[in-house]
Amino acid sequence: MALVTLLPILNVFAMSFSEADAIFKHPLMLVPYNFTIAAYEYIFSTSILLKSFFVTVFATVVGTLFNLALTITGAYSLSKTALPGNKILLWVCIFPMLFGAGLIPTYMLLKELHLLNNIWVLVVSGMVVPFNLILMRNFFWSIPEELEEAMRIDGASDMGILWRMIIPLSKPAIATIGLFYAVGHWNDFFTGLFFLNDNTKWPLQVLLRSIVIDMNALNTRGVTAVIGQDATKIMLTPENIKAATIIFSVVPILLVYPFLQKYFVKGIMLGSVKG
């Protein structure tokens, strides 16, 4: 199972660092042939890729912070059974998990909020995922109430308890939910495709689609790109460029996993077996 997942990644990685002739001779390569970085020089030759990269980073970082702030405060409130209307509010959160409004109502709502063709639509749309809210609520529910009562005796407020005790104890769950949100923002494709018309505001995934489509069109016409001068010319095919773009869009989010791996499984287990 691991090889089935890993081999295509190695193949794309090798193609991104190989010359065009080598790709034609070895289409299923796992290591680069005739190593070159010409494909990466080509995709970085225009500023639009870097703009899309920073748009995606902005949406991922700012969006994840907003997501976590709303999810943590909402889950902490719902974890209190003494909250008036707790069950009703919980059902209000669960209902969107079963039934969605659809694309047209979402489009009309974002239009009324003046978020169409606005970079903030990547942050605002989907601020809270109900599944993550329920998962976080179950985690908070598992924390002994005696700890909160001890802090209340010391004069702590609800926000003080949340900030000084609940959040430090919930680092595994917060890291897990944060990873879910971050990956969701990084891989978000439909929001940019449907609600952003200006290509300078496109996230990386929408730009990647555009590059793949354009390169396929070039491929059908047999067009190649040339990098270098005279004897140092290196021919690039659409396969080189697509592979380099894919690797560029995948690597940053993959680098996040090693730092959160120790929290990931622990957070999922603690949030799911309790309640």
UniProtKB/TrEMBL annotation:
Alphabetic keyword roster: Cell membrane, Membrane, Transmembrane, Transmembrane helix, Transport
Keyword Transmembrane: yes
Transmembrane intervals: 53-76, 88-107, 119-140, 161-183, 241-260
Domain ABC transmembrane type-1: from-to ranges: 49-259
Localization of this protein: Cell membrane
One Pfam family named in its UniProt record: BPD_transp_1
Membrane topology note: Multi-pass membrane protein
GO cellular component: plasma membrane
Protein name: Carbohydrate ABC transporter permease
